[in-house]
Amino acid sequence: QVQLVESGGGLVQPGGSLRLSCAASGSIFSIGAMRWYCQAPGKQRELVASITSGGTTNYVDSVKGRFTISRDNAQKTVYLQMNTLKPEDTAVYYCNADIIQQSQHYAYQRAYWGQGTQVTVSS
Question: Which residues on adjacent β-strands are paired with residue 96?
Fold first, then answer.
Protein backbone atom coordinates (compact mmCIF):
# COMPACT_ATOMS: atom_id res chain seq x y z
CA GLN A 1 0.00 0.00 0.00
CA VAL A 2 0.98 3.64 -0.45
CA GLN A 3 1.52 5.88 2.52
CA LEU A 4 2.32 9.57 2.85
CA VAL A 5 3.89 10.37 6.20
CA GLU A 6 4.16 13.99 7.30
CA SER A 7 6.45 15.62 9.81
CA GLY A 8 7.71 19.03 10.83
CA GLY A 9 4.70 20.72 12.36
CA GLY A 10 4.75 22.42 15.71
CA LEU A 11 4.30 25.61 17.67
CA VAL A 12 6.09 28.71 16.45
CA GLN A 13 5.90 32.43 17.20
CA PRO A 14 4.70 34.91 14.60
CA GLY A 15 7.50 35.64 12.18
CA GLY A 16 9.06 32.25 12.73
CA SER A 17 9.64 29.39 10.33
CA LEU A 18 8.81 25.74 9.97
CA ARG A 19 9.67 23.14 7.37
CA LEU A 20 7.12 20.44 6.68
CA SER A 21 8.06 17.17 5.05
CA CYS A 22 5.94 14.48 3.47
CA ALA A 23 7.50 11.22 2.35
CA ALA A 24 5.75 8.69 0.15
CA SER A 25 6.39 4.99 0.39
CA GLY A 26 4.96 1.75 -0.91
CA SER A 27 4.29 0.41 -4.37
CA ILE A 28 4.93 3.50 -6.47
CA PHE A 29 5.77 3.64 -10.12
CA SER A 30 6.01 7.41 -10.28
CA ILE A 31 4.64 10.51 -8.61
CA GLY A 32 2.86 13.29 -10.43
CA ALA A 33 1.85 16.54 -8.81
CA MET A 34 2.36 16.99 -5.08
CA ARG A 35 0.44 19.47 -2.97
CA TRP A 36 0.02 20.96 0.44
CA TYR A 37 -3.38 21.80 1.87
CA CYS A 38 -4.36 23.46 5.11
CA GLN A 39 -7.47 23.14 7.21
CA ALA A 40 -8.17 25.54 10.03
CA PRO A 41 -10.76 24.72 12.71
CA GLY A 42 -14.27 25.08 11.36
CA LYS A 43 -13.09 25.73 7.83
CA GLN A 44 -12.80 23.73 4.65
CA ARG A 45 -9.56 22.27 3.45
CA GLU A 46 -7.73 24.71 1.19
CA LEU A 47 -4.99 24.23 -1.36
CA VAL A 48 -1.87 26.10 -0.28
CA ALA A 49 0.78 25.10 -2.78
CA SER A 50 1.39 22.62 -5.55
CA ILE A 51 4.35 21.39 -7.53
CA THR A 52 4.24 19.39 -10.72
CA SER A 53 6.50 16.50 -11.56
CA GLY A 54 8.52 18.94 -13.65
CA GLY A 55 8.94 21.41 -10.80
CA THR A 56 6.37 24.06 -11.69
CA THR A 57 4.98 25.63 -8.53
CA ASN A 58 1.80 27.46 -7.61
CA TYR A 59 0.71 29.13 -4.40
CA VAL A 60 -2.38 30.61 -2.91
CA ASP A 61 -2.01 34.39 -2.79
CA SER A 62 -1.85 34.56 0.99
CA VAL A 63 1.42 32.60 1.15
CA LYS A 64 3.23 33.91 -1.92
CA GLY A 65 6.67 35.14 -0.99
CA ARG A 66 6.57 33.36 2.37
CA PHE A 67 6.15 29.66 1.59
CA THR A 68 8.17 27.52 -0.78
CA ILE A 69 7.16 24.09 -2.00
CA SER A 70 9.84 21.76 -3.27
CA ARG A 71 10.33 18.08 -3.94
CA ASP A 72 13.05 15.48 -3.89
CA ASN A 73 12.06 12.81 -6.36
CA ALA A 74 14.79 10.42 -5.26
CA GLN A 75 13.44 10.53 -1.72
CA LYS A 76 9.79 10.67 -2.85
CA THR A 77 9.37 13.64 -0.58
CA VAL A 78 7.66 17.00 -0.84
CA TYR A 79 8.55 19.90 1.45
CA LEU A 80 6.88 23.11 2.48
CA GLN A 81 9.24 25.75 3.80
CA MET A 82 7.12 28.18 5.78
CA ASN A 83 8.69 31.54 6.62
CA THR A 84 7.36 34.70 8.22
CA LEU A 85 4.55 32.71 9.74
CA LYS A 86 1.38 34.48 10.80
CA PRO A 87 -1.33 33.45 13.26
CA GLU A 88 -3.65 33.07 10.28
CA ASP A 89 -1.43 30.21 9.07
CA THR A 90 -2.49 28.12 12.05
CA ALA A 91 -4.04 24.94 10.70
CA VAL A 92 -3.54 21.27 10.11
CA TYR A 93 -1.44 20.86 6.99
CA TYR A 94 -1.99 17.88 4.74
CA CYS A 95 0.18 16.71 1.91
CA ASN A 96 -1.36 15.19 -1.17
CA ALA A 97 0.25 13.42 -4.09
CA ASP A 98 -0.82 11.89 -7.38
CA ILE A 99 0.59 8.39 -7.22
CA ILE A 100 0.96 6.27 -10.35
CA GLN A 101 0.96 2.54 -9.68
CA GLN A 102 1.54 -0.09 -12.32
CA SER A 103 0.85 -3.76 -12.85
CA GLN A 104 2.26 -5.79 -15.71
CA HIS A 105 -0.10 -4.30 -18.28
CA TYR A 106 -1.98 -1.51 -16.53
CA ALA A 107 -1.17 1.76 -14.87
CA TYR A 108 -3.45 3.80 -12.68
CA GLN A 109 -3.29 7.06 -10.79
CA ARG A 110 -4.99 8.32 -7.71
CA ALA A 111 -4.38 10.93 -5.09
CA TYR A 112 -3.19 9.97 -1.62
CA TRP A 113 -3.29 12.04 1.55
CA GLY A 114 -0.90 12.41 4.42
CA GLN A 115 -2.12 12.16 7.99
CA GLY A 116 -1.86 15.88 8.65
CA THR A 117 0.50 17.83 10.86
CA GLN A 118 -0.49 20.66 13.18
CA VAL A 119 1.03 24.09 12.67
CA THR A 120 0.28 26.61 15.39
CA VAL A 121 1.49 30.20 15.12
CA SER A 122 1.00 32.03 18.39
CA SER A 123 2.80 34.33 20.77
Answer: 35, 113
Closest to 119 measured CA to CA, from 41, 23, 50, 5: 41
Per-residue pLDDT tens over the stretch 27-70? 999 999 999 999 999 999 999 999 999 999 999 999 999 999 99
Q: Please tell me the distance from the alpha carbon of residue 65 to that of residue 61, in angstroms, as a whole number.
A: 9
pLDDT surpassing 90 at residue 103: no
DSSP assignment of 20-69: EEEEEESS-SEEEEEEEEEE-TTS--EEEEEE-TT--EEE-GGGTTTEEE
Burial (CB count within 10 angstroms: exposed 0-12, middle 13-18, buried 19+), residue 55: exposed
